[in-house]
Design goal:
The chain is an alpha+beta fold. It has eleven helices and 17 strands. The chain has a seven-stranded mixed β-sheet with strand order 1-2-8-9-10-11-5, sandwiched between helices. The N terminus is likely disordered.
Length: 412
């Protein structure tokens, strides 16, 4: 297996949700979205007992699968062995029928995977407001369960996509007390992405042994600096869900308190979440560039985060990046209306390491050089307001004409 990168004991390797020991997955075409034969129904299972945690959308309009998965996690006290997912239909704003359909998905999947409904979670993504073709889904589940295998992670990661142009997967491995421990994930997300979770589904697996309470805390901490710092278009969806399953199959000693072992696990989990979050931002609808905004010199992390989000959500900044226009004034403008007090005469701005604004004024950088820097597939915007020691990072993408084309005809 090819090693990609190494950091603080965690080595990035090729892999996905079934790379950790004790996980199987599969996908089939259930015909959720008429007119296509692509796989649109997927199942992820732990082969033995597994602890679970989830974080969900903060939108007040919540999809049925979010409601059901929250209830199941509470009822099982953080234990789950299976997750069933469909793409092509969000099962959102579908009333009592939607809740019944989501429950039926978990019941059917649980029977096929030989577990209980409370130990089964559900996620959906796609068009809002349309009822699920539930009979197509339930008819497809037996065949889906029959395909479960450790090699099914790849088809799982493809079946969950909607307007995404590529699958989003990663895996990290470390050694603890002589045991190899792996954390891996798959995600989908391309549009209706805003940093309070979004039309974003993420599924993370690990063969580490972690108590349910610590697993929940670890996921919240990792999501706060990864998924919750991604924005494509400022829209917060009805369906965002991030799930984490931990089955202990590595044989490593269970993590039961907030000691060094827990800190090490959170470090690895955060690496997985950041990798998936960056992949989501890179694949924003119509996007050609990944944009990283770093704000430093802020009084508090909350201030830095607020300013970074304002810059990331600015259509003028995002279109300037799309057109490789070195218009740093748009960045300064967004920083100024973010609601963070600072002295404009101390503002510094860099684009891919090139200083374009010094002490609130033009730094006289060569515009052609800056424009070439903005043509790169990854663009980094650094803003320093020199008011403190706090910093924050947010990931976004550029805005192109293709974003309008995709969303103007999303249903049709």
């Amino acid at each position: 297996m090819r090693t990609v990168s190494k950091s603080h004991g965690w080595v990035e390797i090729d892999g996905g949700v079934t790379t950790p020991r004790g996980f199987v997955a599969a996908a089939v075409s259930a015909g959720v979205k008429p007119g296509t034969s692509r796989d649109d129904l997927a199942l992820l299972c732990a082969t033995g007992p597994s602890h679970a945690a989830g974080v969900f959308t903060k939108n007040l309009v919540v999809a049925a699968p979010v409601v059901v998965s929250r209830e199941h996690l509470a009822a099982s006290r953080g234990r789950a062995r299976a997750i069933i997912v469909n793409s092509g239909n969000a099962n959102a704003c579908t009333g009592r029928r939607g809740l019944k359909d989501a429950e039926q998905m978990t019941e059917t999947a649980a029977a096929a995977a030989r577990t209980t409904a409370n130990a089964t979670l559900v996620a959906s993504t796609g068009v809002i407001g349309l009822p699920l073709p539930i009979h197509r889904i339930t008819r497809a589940v037996p065949a889906l369960a029959g395909r479960l295998s450790p090699g099914g992670g790849g088809e799982f990661s493809l079946a969950i996509l909607t307007t995404d142009t590529r699958r989003k997967v990663c895996a990290f491995r470390s050694e603890r007390e002589g045991k190899a421990v792996t954390i891996a994930g798959a995600a989908k997300g391309s549009g209706m992405i805003h940093p309070r979770l979004a039309t974003m589904l993420a599924f993370i697996t690990t063969d580490a042994a972690v108590t349910p309470a610590l697993l929940k805390t670890a996921l919240r901490e990792a999501a706060a600096v990864s998924f919750n710092r991604v924005t494509v278009d400022g829209d917060t969806s009805t369906n965002d869900s991030v799930f984490l399953l931990a089955n202990g199959a590595s044989g490593s000693r269970p993590i039961v308190n907030r000691g060094p072992a827990c800190a090490h696990f959170v470090d690895g989990l955060t690496k997985v979440c950041v990798s998936l979050a960056r992949q989501i931002a890179r694949d924003g609808e119509g996007a050609r560039k990944l944009v990283e905004i770093n704000v430093s010199g802020a009084p508090t992390e909350a201030d830095a985060d607020r300013m970074a989000r304002a810059i990331a959500n600015s259509p003028l900044v995002k279109t300037a990046v799309a057109g490789a226009d070195p218009n740093w004034g748009r960045i300064a403008c967004a920083a100024g209306y973010a609601g963070v007090k600072f002295d404009p005469a101390r503002l510094d701005v860099e684009i891919n390491g090139i200083r374009v604004c010094r002490r609130g004024e033009d730094a006289r950088a060569d515009e052609k050089t800056v424009a070439r820097a903005l043509m790169k597939p990854e663009v980094r915007l650094d803003v320093n307001i020199h008011r403190g020691a706090a910093s924050a990072t947010v990931w976004t993408c550029d805005f192109t004409k293709d974003y309008i084309a995709i969303n103007a005809s999303y249903r049709t």
